């Protein structure tokens, strides 16, 4: 059985107290070692729309929400009892019908507004806002990863509602809509092949990660607020795992993720070349120290790999030569 974690799990874990986090991590490790351990206190969530959601008792009040099938166990969310149950009741895990990527989809709730008569002087109605995506075909919206049940909301979105709507959508769909709204053309990932693992799709890998062993799970949970150690954007992963025959240059403005790509690329090269050493350089010792700290978080319990990775400032490289 594959054990996976979701970015929603690491986000929710980071919001708990230190003592609660320790208890959650212990429970997660136990699940990793034996997902069907009869000693684990699992409770099926009858009110959840997705019948594969289960609750795992962490402590008196903390509950871990997992999605359990015959082939996989996904750690989805953790919180205090009532909040955890409400989260699960409003979501479902599904494979997108167009992209083939696994998504945790927020269930669309229909809210009827109660209109109360008001006997006041009528004021002129303000002009209706233009709909941003009326011209976009539903087929295209699905290709961007918009869940089918949210198509009507997307088609009716305007400038006032877009940002709020984006918070309810998977990341790839939200990014595509914001790109369209600002006049850009979103990048579309190739649909998954028939019968392909929905968790292996590039869009799914930005939010789900298979934990191969306890050590990998330990690394992922060591710094739950540093999502970059576990989850990569598809564009970042493309550059990290690219097969280059020579020098390559990646340019981008501040905050676009160049440093994260460099760190993951260095680790990727070290793993792909087990008999080689990898050098990561930067302009100053201050930056080199910061990179060493990030690298330590990324490979904290892989000492043999760390021995073959070195981070130095350019002047330190010159002195050594």
Automatic annotation (TrEMBL):
* Keywords per UniProt: ATP-binding, Helicase, Hydrolase, Nucleotide-binding
Q: Would the keyword Cell membrane turn up in this protein's UniProt record?
A: no
Q: What InterPro entries does the annotation carry?
A: P-loop_NTPase (IPR027417), RelE/ParE_toxin_dom_sf (IPR035093), UvrD-like_ATP-bd (IPR014016)
GO molecular-function term, one example from the UniProt record: ATP binding
Cross-referenced Gene3D superfamilies: P-loop containing nucleotide triphosphate hydrolases, RelE-like
Give start and end of each UvrD-like helicase ATP-binding domain: 233-319
Entry protein name: UvrD/REP helicase
The species this protein was found in: mine drainage metagenome
Species lineage, top-down?
Answer: unclassified sequences, metagenomes, ecological metagenomes
């Amino acid at each position: 059985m594959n054990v996976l974690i979701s970015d929603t799990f690491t986000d929710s874990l980071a919001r708990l107290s230190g003592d609660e986090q320790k208890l959650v991590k212990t429970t997660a490790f136990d699940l990793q070692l034996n997902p069907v351990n009869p000693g684990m206190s699992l409770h099926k969530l009858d009110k959840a729309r997705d019948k594969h959601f289960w609750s795992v008792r962490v402590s008196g009040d903390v509950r871990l929400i997992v999605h359990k099938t015959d082939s996989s166990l996904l750690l989805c969310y953790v919180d205090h009892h009532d909040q955890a149950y409400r989260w699960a009741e409003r979501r479902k895990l599904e494979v997108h019908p167009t992209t083939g990527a696994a998504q945790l989809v927020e269930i669309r709730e229909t809210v009827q507004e109660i209109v109360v008569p008001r006997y006041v002087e009528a004021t002129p109605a303000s002009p209706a806002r233009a709909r941003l995506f009326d011209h976009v075909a539903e087929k295209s919206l699905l290709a961007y990863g918009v869940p089918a049940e949210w198509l009507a909301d997307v088609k009716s979105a305007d400038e006032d509602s877009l940002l709020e709507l984006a918070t309810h959508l998977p990341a790839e769909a939200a990014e595509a809509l914001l790109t369209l709204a600002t006049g850009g053309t979103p990048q579309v990932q190739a649909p998954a092949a028939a019968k392909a693992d929905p968790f292996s799709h590039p869009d799914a890998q930005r939010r789900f990660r298979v934990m191969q062993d306890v050590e990998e799970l330990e690394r992922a949970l060591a710094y739950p607020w540093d999502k970059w150690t576990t989850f990569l954007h598809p564009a970042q992963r493309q550059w990290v795992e690219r097969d280059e025959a020579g020098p390559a240059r990646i340019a981008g403005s501040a905050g676009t993720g160049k440093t994260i790509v460099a760190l993951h690329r260095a680790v990727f090269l070290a793993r792909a070349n087990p008999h080689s050493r990898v050098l990561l350089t930067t302009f100053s010792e201050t930056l080199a120290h910061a990179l060493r700290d990030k690298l330590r978080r990324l490979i904290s319990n892989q000492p043999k790999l760390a021995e073959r990775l070195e981070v130095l400032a350019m002047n330190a490289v010159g002195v050594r030569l």
